[in-house]
Amino acid sequence: MADTRTPEPAAKPAARTPDTTRRSERSRRAIYDAALSLVGEVGYPKTTIEGIAARAGVGKQTIYRWWPSKAAVLLEAFLDLGERAAEAAGAGGDYEIPDTGDLAADLKTVLRATVDELVDPQYEAPSRALTAAGIVDPVLGAEFVEKLLEPSLQLYVKRLRAAQEAGDVRPDLDPRVALELLVAPLAHRWLLRTLPLTHAYADAVVDCALGGLTPR
Amino acid sequence: MADTRTPEPAAKPAARTPDTTRRSERSRRAIYDAALSLVGEVGYPKTTIEGIAARAGVGKQTIYRWWPSKAAVLLEAFLDLGERAAEAAGAGGDYEIPDTGDLAADLKTVLRATVDELVDPQYEAPSRALTAAGIVDPVLGAEFVEKLLEPSLQLYVKRLRAAQEAGDVRPDLDPRVALELLVAPLAHRWLLRTLPLTHAYADAVVDCALGGLTPR
């Protein structure tokens, strides 16, 4: 399967032997790791292409050849993390929300996993830095939403549509709106640090959203 | 009613005539306005006490005497905005979520007003800048939550408790958790700019949260 996002050196296509590919792959991952660690340490505004290049042990021209901006490097670094996680989970590079027929259980599974990802100390700082940068920079924010966020939200749309077909979700609801009652409370606690972000909270959000606030 | 947050000059208490008070009040508001406009224009990291003082037409020692940091100035600027809005609305400085007996209508009223505040072009930029700064700075974030966010969230706790007493909200729900299904989706759309933040969306969130996702 061709990975259309793999950066290709602009020059010397004839030299693209397996060895070169492995070297490129190593450089690409080194650049991602450097970008993630740097932005976690010094914040997004102070992270530079030069700094990423120095830490990754590549020339800055290598980065400029493959990516138009540091935002593009960081976004791809997070996309790559997601892919690696999916590969490690044996999902063949594609995440799906499980469909065991028990909607509450499936949503709790995925929201608990989301909690674990959000509080992972290895990635929390760069993830916060990128999100905060997107909040004040509409162009970066739009890229963040289009490439990283919306594809993951569409997994909820798919699962909620299946639940509607199974009669487990009200047919009049727009799944794209309904999913926000599930994911936004977790994002809110994570971003603003109002109260602890725990599995118990993920479960409470699912129960509250499915059952509704008014008595049955 | 004494406003305990009104900054008092440290020196010359004997000179505190009505004229001085008015001058202090004018300086205080000028400093708030300068802080809000500056952080909206250049962002939080590049906003300095010196810059705020210059724009407000006061000496920087005036600011240092009244506030310990630029974060403190900004937070009080937003608190002051809320107070001014409450005064203008004739609420005597205290906001409350209305209780007409119609929970859905009351929540739609307050969430529509929240939408209007969030997209107000005069304050959107500084509000985003302050929120983003708090996301990457835990100390500032905690101050933001304690002074600005949590007090407004407690208004929902109060209204939802009244609704529980009236039998309109399930008695087993924790209002502090339930309210997040109402406010977090709006914050999510506003911060991340996923989809339009409109009154229709506020209404949909209320209907979805009250009724729940599963069929009745």
Task: Describe the 3D structure.
The structure is a homodimer. The first copy, chain A, is an all-alpha fold. The first copy, chain A, is built from 10 helices and no strands. The longest helix of chain A is centred in the C-terminal third of the chain and has 28 residues. Chains A and B meet through helix 6, helix 7, helix 8, helix 9 and helix 10 of A and helix 6, helix 7, helix 8, helix 9 and helix 10 of B.
Structural category of chain A? mainly alpha
Biggest protein-protein interface?
A-B, 57 and 57 residues
Cα-based radius of gyration of chain A, to the nearest Å: 20 Å
Number of helices of chain A: 10
Q: How many individual β-strands of chain A?
A: 0
Tell me, what's the shape of chain A? elongated
Question: How far apart lie the N and C ends of chain A?
Answer: 50 Å
- Assembly type of the shown chains? homodimer
Helix percentage of chain A: 55-70%
Q: Unreliable segments of chain A (pLDDT under 50, ≥5 consecutive)?
A: 1-14
Mean pLDDT of chain A: 89
Strand content of chain A is under 5%
- Helix and strand succession of chain A? HHHHHHHHHH
Largest sheet of chain A: none
